[in-house]
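Margin note from the TA: students keep mixing up input and output lines. Inputs are the sequences; the output is the structure of the whole complex. Example:
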Amino acid sequence: VEASIPEGQRAAWKKFSVKEFKTKEDFEKEVVRHVETTLARSIFNCDESAAYNGTALAFRDRLVIEWNKTQQQQTYADQKRVYYLSLEFLMGRALDNAMLNVGMKDVAKDGLADLGFRMEDVISQERDAALGNGGLGRLAACFLDSLATLNYPAWGYALRYRYGIFKQEIVDGYQVEVPDYWLDFNPWEFPRHDVTVDIQFYGGVRKIKNEAGKTVSVWENGEIVTAVAYDAPVPGYGTSTTNNLRLWSSKASHGEFDFTKFNSGEYEASVADQQRAETISAVLYPNDSLERGKELRLKQQYFWCAASLFDIVRRFKKSKKAWSEFPNQVAIQLNDTHPTLAIPELQRILIDVEGLEWDEAWSIVQKTFGYTNHTVLPEALEKWSVPLIQHLLPRHLQIIYDINLNFLTYVERNFPKDRDLLGRVSIIEESQPKMVRMAYLAVIGSHKVNGVAELHSDLIKTTIFKDFVKIYGPDKFTNVTNGITPRRWLHQSNPRLSKLIASKLGSYEFLSDLTLLHKIEAYVDDKAFRKEFQDIKFANKVRLANFIKEAQGITVNPASLFDVQVKRIHEYKRQQLNIFGVIHRYFEIKEMSPAERKKVQPRVSIFGGKAAPGYWMAKTIIHLVNQVGKVVNNDPEIGDLLKVVFLEDYNVSKAEIICPASDISEHISTAGTEASGTSNMKFVLNGGLVIGTCDGANIEITREIGEENIFLFGNLAEDVEDLRHAHFYSEFKMDPMLQRVFDEIRSGVFGDAGQFSALVNSIVEHGDYYLVSDDFKSYIDTHKLIDEAYKDQETWLTKTITSVARMGFFSSDRCIDEYAEMIWNIEPVKPTSNGA
Ligand code: GPK
């Protein structure tokens, strides 16, 4: 369809083409216009929420102008694009980021002041876009920021959940989940009711002869659900490039309701269909690093993969290029195994719809996909039952079997002597029922597989994908160490530190080239610099202390050592180790003489994070933290020497307040279990030190900042297996300090001991899988070192400044450049000022 305006009329369009506001006055004009018209409010009816919406709409308009230009330019450039398929994008707030990235925050601040509002109040009106669980989703959001900043032609594809990750409330010390309905009014999204894709489920497969006399498969008579696109602009920093995040929403294919049913009086049935369809994109599954095999989840995955691929293929076909060109135009990155169905789906489109031969199609598929693994935890590796896939996606199951047959034939031919190998690497697990191993399908269907930190990338090659290294050779597997965007995690969250750094480096260029940070090491002995750096940390701690008071009603002294562990609650992340350490500290202080107590370093232990709703052990840990807090915080003997805080509803916008305010943060997973971790990077970049195990990116952080600047403890990944074995097969002696902690818990000091027996017994009786007892002493000793080190504030300060200076490597910009070069083979599209 030709939708271009004819030449003769274009002058009129160009004359009135919308321009970006540039001045404070123009910004104010835009805000007032939106408040008065789009929002239909007035000066007598304009609260902070209206001011936020008006400001957001003013900036949204600006982004849209650049977004349109970017899309035109990228289409014109005709270069290869990358599509990042992720079921999660944990974007957080958009307004602050938009103002920063287009470089108009100061203008907006002055403009808002003229209109009677404070910038901070307006920004904090926005609800987080919380379409993710934790690290994996936040990584995807950092990647979008870097992709746009580096001018890569890139799209994100995800689902438009009506409910993001639940809101966590703590009631009587227990986690309670409250739904997060976030779509009431979202100024950042654009419904594209004209961009739809019909997606099929169920049905059957029939073989027919086509016109060319070839036998082809048709998948038919299924149930159709329509995917509707919703787009959100993703602005780059310091560039006009504005990429697209496309979210699919589900609705019934026949519109509001089925008129045939409605007319025949089946009112309820007609509406029920609609609701069933809408259920697909209704809610984000709240499990982090855990798979639960629910049919609706599989439906979500296929719905999203199929809609995205249809969209990608449709865009490619407009270019009228040969299919062999597809991998030169399209790179698709699979964020974990969640989008693995995209592999058989592309194969299906190529052979069943486009009529390519199997081998030609399969070669295109393999060249197109890359797969990122985020965990080696067995309970997180996705498997779907064969009967379920057979029922829901019958044609895909056939294709998966064919992929497997070809693959196993190849393996058999090349490794005829290894009899067990075929069973080990088969995509189909021969269990009852049979299961499809999604990670194997992802490995087989991709040209590159990467882990997210060096240790993790080594581990996948020696554990879960060992056989595949033998089959494909080591080059298929690579490492891309995770990174974080310095725009949000330094400049936005810690504006004063960013400004101090800029004052020394002469510009804010470090925000687009974080390696420039190394230059601040020259100021490590500069008195004025040190003083300001220290003042900033203190001010950030005051800000957090105020927040804790407001949110939790607990008074903490900002002069205390702030010890923070915020992340999803999981046994492998070992918040239980932390809280047992806190209990140990509590009784140690209680047993001290008044003179000894005077020497104690005051501490605030801050916890935050959500537990998956069905994960009882994680919920027990939250409960224990809250119970310990209740006892410790109200013990008059303890006073400021120890406070324990559980911060409710940890999310991205809270992380922006928390990360700049730590003295120490905890990254204490059982060695070999945390693939990377990314909050470790955020804390160090903001002038906090780390206590951590030799795990994930902690190892590379140590290498970059120096081992004198980090507190490492605990057993190494290479010893974990033997230690686990020893818990069952040799005489095991419980650490006496930990035994004491358990005795106190069992005595009921922290409330009904029965509540905590499963937690204690997982360590005492059930083999202590996460090695809490093995690492306990080393953990306690290391905290002692931290207390001592903190008393020497000058040395501490030197450590923190040096660490910040050496964090340049951990920018997600570096990370995205590595993906672009090693995996995607894409080049930036430099924006020009005048559009296409
Ligand atoms: C890994 F497998 C998973 C998952 O389901 N969710 C998730 O957030 C995390 N992750 C890892 O646990 C982190 O170590 C890592 O930094 C993050 O993914 C990003 O790679």
